[in-house]
Each structure stands twice: as structure tokens, then as C-alpha cells.
Design brief:
Blueprint lengths: L1 H20 L10 E2 L7 E2 L8 E6 L2 E6 L14 E5 L4 E7 L6 H4 L9 E18 L5 E15 L4 E2 L1 E2 L3 E8 L1
Parallel strand pairs: 1-10
Antiparallel strand pairs: 2-3, 3-4, 4-6, 5-7, 6-7, 7-8, 8-9, 8-11
Length: 172
Amino acid sequence: MKSINFIKNKLIISFSILVVLSCSDGEITISSIDFNEVVIQSCNTTAAATFFFKIKDNETIVLQIPAGLLKSSVSENTIESSIPSQSALTYRTFQDKISSGYFCDALPTLSPTLIKNAIATSGSILVNTVLSEDGSSFEHKIQLSGITFIDDQGRRITDLNINDFGTFITPK
């Protein structure tokens, strides 16, 4: 009877150690991406722009579209570009806050350090272009549809709250 209790106690202790060791090591897990209230930026202010980004403290979402997707004319239909074959969308977190200079400066900065990188593996970029109310510029409304991100460890980011990437304004 003593040997059964001894084995039972050993199993309980072993199971407890296994549970403790398998717990999270405190690593940050991205569960939601939300840039709805963040303004779209680009290093280029014309319809030739192909690189856009949004910065929220130490997080960024970066969009690369093919040349010619934005046009200096009103679109009659929605223009679509697929990810990853035509466009690229990346979500990144950094060690510290970043600024637009990280993307636009002639000499790239070495800091802050990139912590996480998640790449969109599927989805679509949708663009609708209208003439501004005063007729002096074009408003390119960029939307995301069906986006799936996979991070560096192969984990899928499930709660994606960024359907409206933003409106990029170019001169007429």
C-alpha cells in the first residue's frame, strides 16, 4: 500500500512540475491588430506612391502596393490587388516608439529594435478613388479584406480589426 501511495505522490509531483514548466514564459502574444484611429502615412504624396504605413507607439502596419494601383482619376469600380501575389502587408512591433523617419529617412536607422514581424499571407487590398469635394485632389480609400497574418513563430493572428486602412489624398 505504501508503494502505491509513493507512486501516486510521485505522479502528482511530476504532473505538477510538467504543468509549471509548460506555462507561458511571459512572451508577448499578439491577439489583436487595431489601427482604425491611426492616420495613413507615406513618404510620397503623389498617386505614384506604393508604400504606406501607420504608426501607433511601437507598432506599425506597412502596406506595399504595385505601381499604378492608385490613379489620378476617379475609379468607376473598386480596384483590387491580392496579397501576397501583388501587394504586401506587414505588422511589426518594436522595442521602442518609432517615427515616420524610420521609413522615410534617406539613411535607415538602426533602432529601435524589431521585436515581432507578422506577414499577411492572404487577403485583398481594395481601392476606390473619388474626387475631393472642392475638386482639387483625389481621395484614395484603401480597404483590407480577408487578411490573415502569420507571425515569426508561425502563429496566426485571429482578431483583425483593420478593414479600413485609410484614405490617402493626392493632388489633382
